[in-house]
Amino acid sequence: xxxxxxxxxxxxxxxxxxxxxxxxxxxxxxxxxxxxxxxxxxxxxxxxxxxxxxxxxxxxxxxxxxxxxxxxxxxxxxxxxxxxxxxxxxxxxxxxxxxxxxxxxxxxxxxxxxxxxxxxxxxxxxxxxxxxxxxxxxxxxxxxxxxxxxxxxxxxxxxxxxxxxxxxxxxxxxxxxxxxxxxxxxxxxxxxxxxxxxxxxxxxxxxxxxxxxxx
Length: 215
Fold this sequence. Notes:
alpha/beta, 5-stranded parallel sheet, 3-stranded antiparallel sheet, 15% strand, globular
């Protein structure tokens, strides 16, 4: 089985990818993880990617495609894979499609995790973290008083990460809607896109995804 997991920031793609890996014995291709691994191992592509990152620049598409090519050709993907975090633009989708053709790989489904944007922004902006024990908390579900951690009980240790601030999350959605959302049309035209209701809890969303795969 060969899948692409698609959806906006904060939808829970990483969590669902891990559950799908366990259920179907797939390899999880996370572009962030393979990028970090290539840099750690000092491969040619890893060093090339690092040279851009050290300058604060985005890693070029051709480098990312090269990294994905290496993983797809390895033994780890023989029993199938789920690709998470790529493609994010139409040009990336086009180059990825060429790569699949070169390697004679057919994608079974592109799973588009659909959410209500306002609800996701509200949920993510309520996330907090403990500076002492690193517990990930949420104002909607955890009782937090005076910024004291309810897990380790450390006083005044709760703070909000910059990535979780409402203006930052809204900007990420704007970038997604402008650059990444059109990729859905690309896969819809190929007949591989399947929309999945992803507004429930982790288990509910997982069941929806499994039904989308198996039906």
